[in-house]
Amino acid sequence: MVMLVNGQLALRIHDDLSFDLMQAGSSDLLAKGRAVLSSGAIDLLGSQPARSDCTGPSEVDTVLGHAQRLTAGATFTDHDRCAWHVTITADAYPQWPNAFVLHWTIANDGTQPLAIDQFTAPQLELVNWPGELWSLQGAAVKWGQDFAFPLPADFRRDNFLGHIDHGEGGGIPIVDIWNRQQGLALMHEMLYVAPQTRLPIVMANVNRSLGAGSGIWAEYNDSMPERESGWMQCYVEDAQEAFDTIIQAYRLCEDQRVMLPLMMCLDAFVLSHTVEKVVLPDQAEVDAFLPRFRPLNYLDAQNPKFINVAVTPAHSMEMRYQLDHLMRSVGPVVDEVDALFSEHFGRGYGGSIQSYRMEDAEHALITLGTATSTARVAVDELRKEGKKVGLVKLKYIRPFPHDQLRAALRGVSSLGVFDRSIAVNGFGPVFTEVRNSCYGMGIPITNHIAGIGGRDLTVATFRAMFDIVTRDGRARPDRECFWHGLRGEM
Asked: In this predicted structure, which of 126-140, 156-170, 304-318, 329-343 has the lowest mean pLDDT?
């Protein structure tokens, strides 16, 4: 156990590399912390080390200036030819009293590969902290600026992506973002940067309603307006599909034929605030499925290039054409990745679309998201009553599966399209996409808007949709758009 003092604070490091923060000259504990290092379900720092050593304090010169340094190291082992050595250094700078700069290094001292699933440093627990905590956000680019800000007790920043104005902070490359509601709207401008610069970002977007009358329940009016941004976009049905789609997404996005970002959309509350059983594969299985990442664009002094600069009219039109052409070519890769995932893990989702009881269907309904599960029950009930109805689950909005959809709908005499958002043009956005895709097929198509703002979707809701779809299969529909579950008459 060793101690370092800076101003009114003292830092004490234990043999297992956990540490305490105390008032200098006192034994009163202010906070305690440790690094979290795990492999699967195993806490790699949770046991007593096989051996440990400490040195210091010593005088050192770093890029930040002159400092006093403590160094503590420990070797941990699982007695199965696996051993890992962790070192923590703590620096105290006189120009920054009451502060310590901590640095961790990890080395594999064993004879077996060591897979690290989580590394968090430090994990702090405040015991009797008297003042403020501050967060330092380092600059992502050399011409940017570091910045620091206080963390009050109730601090929360849901929509913080790692940078603020004027070049401070950063965090590029961002490889995984979890976002919801206004966060997506606030990053609208930056969404258009990632596809054109071919950044394979994976984002999980929890769909909530936007604007006045917003809430924490499901609605797609946050993500549907972004389908023209160049991001691939898909909607999942349950927690298992959400988990599996994230794994698929990394292989899809990082495929050299694709190299585009993907937005996986999952229904708020139904998926974000409820609990379901999920089958979790072993880390080795996932590693075997995901190839090593190879970036497409990167900074290379031997091959200089401009990335994301202003473009004149002489080139911008070709850039947009290339992006549109690329998105249209991605569809087969989506289906290929799902097929490979199914072969590897034993479950799949059909790729871009998934048909249900469509073999001899005369009337069909298109759904997406969690509503699909309820709609399938309605299909089963109607089938028992002798009605030839079927269902097509539309998973991907971008790339839009034109060919697969037309093939799935060949032979139906009427079609309904479910929407969980509006386009403020008298129809929903999915209806507009489907009608465009089915142009020339001669199928009467009706739009069915429901579940807005998280309103309940029941089996009766989808039976009502099918009543309209089967009725209008005999002639052109007398009305093209229907709202279901409104309080009062339309």
From this structure: 156-170
Q: Are residues 341 and 213 in the same domain?
A: yes
Domain of residue 293, residue span: 173-345
Do 339 and 196 lie in one domain? The reply is yes
DSSP alpha helix (H) spans, 9-154? none
Pairwise CA distance, residues 405 & 433, whole Å: 11
Residue 362 sits in the same domain as residue 464 = yes
Segment among 1-15, 214-228, 241-255, 387-401 with least mean pLDDT? 1-15
> CA–CA distance from 218 to each of 264, 265, 268, 273, 452 (Å)?
14, 10, 5, 11, 7
- Rounded to the nearest 5 percent, the helix, strand and coil shares of the chain are 25, 30, 45
**Helix or strand run (H / E) with residue 174:** none
Amino acid at 152: P
Structure tokens at 367: 């759904």
For 129-182, write each residue's pLDDT tens digit: 766 666 555 554 454 555 555 666 555 544 344 444 433 334 333 344 445 556
Neighbours of 157 (CB within 10 A): 10
Q: Which token pair is 417?
A: 């399209």
Domain count, the chain: 3
Flag whether the pTM goes above 0.85.
Answer: no
Are 61 and 97 within one domain? yes
Among 320, 345, 370, residue at a domain's last position: 345
User: 57-113: per-residue pLDDT in tens?
Assistant: 899 998 888 999 999 888 887 756 677 788 889 999 988 888 888 888 888 877 777
Helices (H), 58-114: none
Per the rule left: phi > 0, alpha: psi between -120 and 50, beta: everything else, 457 is beta
Q: How far apart are CA 302 and CA 300, in angstroms?
A: 5
From the list 327, 193, 191, the residue with the least C-alpha distance to 257 is 327
Same domain, 463 and 367: yes
